[in-house]
Amino acid sequence: MTNVESLATKPLFGLPLAELWFALLFFIFGMFLFLDGFDFGVGVLFATRNDDHEKEQLLAAVGPFWDGNEVWLVVFGGALFAAFPSVYANLFSRYYLLMFAILAALGLRGLAPEMYEEREDDRWRTLWGYSFVIGSTVTPFLLGLFVMNWLVGATGLITPVGVLGGVTVLVLTIVDGAAFLGLKTRGALRDEMRDYGIRAAVGYLGIAIITLGVIYVTEPGLRSSFRSITVVALVMLTATLTGIYTVALRRRRYYAAFAATATLVFGLVGLVATLLFPFVDRTAGLTVREAIISTLPLNIMSIMASVLLPIVLGYFVMLYSAFSGPVDTEETYG
């Protein structure tokens, strides 16, 4: 059998590629939620600032990163389309308006800082400052709404579980943003962001527990999954990491807090993936193995991903290394 024939008939190296691509899909989404999550969190915390100088510091903190971080959302959409095209079509058809609302909110969040810096006029800056806050608040809420609707297989756009999921993701981004600002700011501003982060962490744990409880009560088909060791471990990990995050901020261990935030984000994404599996589209009744593309393109795509993904990760390592450390007190977004 030739190599081409082998690629067309057998998974690469005998690996469970369907399951690996399912895991990779949620890893990519986790990268987006973690990295762009602190951008959203900074945008929400922007609403707490009245001093123009402090606002400029917050904008300068995320300035080098936010547009690069959004690449992960594009990669997520591309991976979903490439590996699970039927699911991509179903989700975009089912949540068409929600998808466009997410894109509109992302666009507003990206446009607002650019417009904010265009003029010194107070009314102009107030308008675009509010736009920055609105875009940064609405986007993670809608993302949480989308993910929770996807998880439970909801056919409507607004559901109780979806709304709770939206609030959960929104509060998590504030946790993320406060930890990031602990690394990027100094003095009284950093101390205030630390206090907001501690409050947000407590709120996140509470709303996450409520959301899981509502899912357990309203979704009988998912109850057996809640008893799995993985789900129990992830829930316990979330509670533990919330405590670690809070202690780290109190002791001004900002790198530890940021690392705890990363694990919290991937813990939430992993929990969603675990509850969804083996389905990838519960509404359509499609499992991971049923929805995955055929063997040959899957093998080729896996080879390409094994080459390109490390390059992308390496780029982000260099980006964050180049702009590491607190922003200068006189630095601005522009």
What's the structural blueprint in terms of helices and strands?
Blueprint: H1 3-9, H2 17-45, H3 52-62, H4 66-69, H5 71-83, H6 85-94, H7 96-116, H8 122-152, H9 160-184, H10 187-218, H11 223-226, H12 229-250, H13 254-276, E1 279-281, E2 286-287, H14 288-291, H15 295-322
Antiparallel strand pairs: 1-2
Helix pairs in contact: 1-15, 2-5, 2-8, 2-9, 2-13, 5-6, 7-8, 8-9, 8-13, 9-10, 9-13, 10-12, 12-13
Structural class: mainly alpha
Largest sheet: 2 strands, antiparallel
Specify Rg, calculated over alpha carbons: 21 Å
Strand content: under 5%
Low-confidence stretches: none
Q: Mean of the pLDDT scores?
A: 90
Keywords: Cell membrane, Membrane, Plasmid, Transmembrane, Transmembrane helix
Subcellular location: Cell membrane
GO biological process, one term: aerobic electron transport chain
InterPro entries: Cyt-d_oxidase_su2
Task: Kindly summarize this structure in a few lines.
The protein is mainly α and 334 residues long. The protein contains 15 helices and two strands.
Tell me about this structure.
There is one protein chain. This protein is mainly α and 334 residues long. The protein has one domain. The chain has helices at 3-9, 17-45, 52-62, 66-69, 71-83, 85-94, 96-116, 122-152, 160-184, 187-218, 223-226, 229-250, 254-276, 288-291, 295-322, and strands spanning 279-281, 286-287. A two-stranded antiparallel ribbon has the order 1-2. α2 crosses α13. The longest helix is centred in the middle third of the chain and has 32 residues, at 187-218.
